[in-house]
Amino acid sequence: MTIIRRATREDLPALTALALREHAASQFASQPVELAHVQASFLGVIHGLAGAVFVSEQGGTVRGLIAGIVQPGLFNRHQTAYELLWYAENGSGLRLLAALQDWARRMRAVQLVVHDYAGIADPARFNKVMARRGFGVMGTAYVSALES
Fold first, then answer.
1. Dihedral pair phi/psi, residue 134, rounded to 5°
2. Contact (CB, 8 A) for 115 and 82
3. Which residues pair with 131 in a beta bridge?
4. CA 55 to chain CA mean position, Å
5. Closest alpha carbon to 109 in 135, 143, 71, 64
């Protein structure tokens, strides 16, 4: 049986391991990983007033996560929720999304923005699933490497 729950500090090793697997499968795989930064980022969202991390747990093992934050919009004080990282290895992705949506509503967000920036999901399938869940396309994102 899979349960969805809020992540705690004790989940940090499992969250970090999942994030590393997501990173390795993503378009960001060529970028270095700083473990201390990953862990500090998770702790900031877990313990922050404007963030939440939910996990899917199966048999005592964390198998998926979704992290998000809320912040005021650019043009008004209405809250928008943003998904930061979403990765599940056990088919719990849509249940994790529902948990983040419920949390965003409780935070009085007027919209939730989710993405597939990592480039892991098949875009056509992802778009179809998200449309069935009531999400619409919000523009197009582009990326350009910047040399340091």
1. 90, 10
2. no
3. none
4. 10
5. 71
Is pTM beyond 0.90 here?
yes
Q: Are 90 and 60 in contact (CB under 8 A)?
A: no
The closest alpha carbon to 15, from 40, 51, 32, 49, belongs to: 40
| Best CA proximity match to 22, nearest among 141, 124, 120 | 120
Q: Which of 97, 91, 89 is nearest to 113 (CA)?
A: 97
59-76 pLDDT per residue, tens? 999 999 999 999 998 899
- Name every residue whose Cβ is closer than 8 Å to that of residue 84 and which is 6 or more positions away in sequence: 45, 67, 68, 69
Q: How far apart are CA 55 and CA 59, in angstroms?
A: 13
CA 30 to chain centre: 20
Q: Which residue reads 């920036």 in tokens?
A: 117
Neighbours of 80 (CB within 10 A): 16
Residues 6+ apart with CB under 8 A from 14: 55, 61, 62
Structure tokens at 56: 């899917």
Look at residues 72, 145, 70 and name the one whose alpha carbon lies nearest to residue 107. Answer: 70
